[in-house]
Amino acid sequence: MHDPQKPRFSALKRILRYVRGTLDYGLQLFSSSTIDLVAYSDADWARCPTTRRSTSGYCVFLGNNLHSWSSKRQPTLSHSIAEAKYQVVANAVAETYWLKNLLRELHTPLSSATLVYCDNVSAVYLSSNLVQHQHTKHIEIDIHFVRDLVVAVQVRVIHVPSRYQYADIFTKGLPSALFEEFHTSLSIRCPPAPTAGER
């Protein structure tokens, strides 16, 4: 805002054109035979050119429906891609843990472990590694929180190839075909045209 330049103005125009073209889109909910909690988490690493902070994103499905999502800049600098990705895994686990407790209070307890998908093998390994390394001490609380739930078999952190990482839509620009596929997988669609009897 204080120093507008042509590239930023072009990006703003692109965003406005996208918003104008998707005004009719919405989140559609469907009946689901399962009530499992599944989360996808992702982070870019130090992508912001001015602050070098990472952007975190996750989405949580309850059954077949997208229930919650988040995309925001991480409050601290990450020393590695594994750390940035692990912090968003911890955020996704915290969200699913809260939802699991809410469902228990509503007398609908979940019987299976929550699945949290991450596309970084090191972050997946950190979730079940019982050895605390010196270079991970600064994220110790996140590590213990997630690891305790993994040990209690309430959460499973699983590697997912980037091709199936739906949370990428919240953290980075994607090719058009992949973007279309991911937002369809998140149940973001244009509603069907009403029939004559529905008006």
TrEMBL record:
Domain of life: Eukaryota
CDD domains referenced in this protein's UniProt entry, alphabetically: RNase_HI_RT_Ty1
Entries under SUPFAM superfamilies matching the protein: DNA/RNA polymerases
PANTHER family: GAG-POL-RELATED RETROTRANSPOSON, RNA-DIRECTED DNA POLYMERASE, PROTEIN KINASE RLK-PELLE-DLSV FAMILY
Protein name per its UniProtKB record: Ribonuclease H-like domain-containing protein
Originating organism: Tanacetum coccineum
